[in-house]
Design a protein that fits this description.
The protein has 155 residues and is mainly β. The protein has two domains: 54 residues, no CATH class; 77 residues, Beta Barrel (OB fold (Dihydrolipoamide Acetyltransferase, E2P)). The strands form three sheets. A four-stranded antiparallel beta sheet has the order 1-2-3-4, with helices on one face. A four-stranded antiparallel beta sheet has the order 5-12-10-7, with no helix packed on it. The protein has a four-stranded antiparallel beta sheet with strand order 9-8-6-11, with no helix packed on it. A hairpin with a 2-residue loop joins β1 and β2. It is elongated and about 60 Å long.
């Protein structure tokens, strides 16, 4: 198994609803697991010793998430969390602007992102009025249930 095949498997795991892939061959074992640590391990049997290769299983699929410049740390920030497992999207398609950006005012009921789960695109709405202080997830990244997505300063 070459590096391109391993990278393709990592991409498959990170973009689909697969939590773990394990491949075992006579002289090769590969385990890719999607979890908070997101680590890939591969063990290759060599004639003298066994080699273990570890690499992060994260794949950058978009530009870095915007953050508030020198935002003061405030204890009264409210977190908008993911109501489901799926893939987080900041806009309805790549050609349109993000639903919300850092510094935007949101009102209760305003769509802040989309989470795709099993080919269904679910609009996630703000339940509070306030200002977006920080976006905590990269676009097109997998998210877990109850994972923080945005920090909001209540109005």
């Amino acid at each position: 198994m070459d590096l391109r095949e391993i990278q393709a498997l990592i991409k498959f795991v990170s973009t689909n609803a697969v939590d773990e892939v394990e491949i075992s061959r006579k002289d090769f074992k590969l385990l890719i697991r999607k979890n908070p640590a997101q680590v890939v391990t591969a063990a290759v049997a060599a004639p003298v010793a066994q080699q273990v290769i570890a690499a992060p299983a994260t794949i950058a699929t978009s530009a870095p998430v915007e953050s508030a410049p020198a935002a003061p740390v405030v204890d009264n920030l409210i977190t908008i969390k993911s109501p489901m497992v799926g893939t987080f999207y900041r806009s309805s398609n790549p050609e349109t602007p993000s639903f919300v950006n850092v510094g935007d005012e949101v009102k209760s009921g305003k769509v802040v992102c989309i989470i795709e789960a099993m080919k269904l695109f679910n609009e996630i709405e703000s339940e509070i009025n306030g200002k977006i202080v920080k976006v905590l997830v990269d676009n097109a990244s997998p998210v877990e249930y109850d994972q923080p997505l945005f920090l909001v300063e209540p109005a």
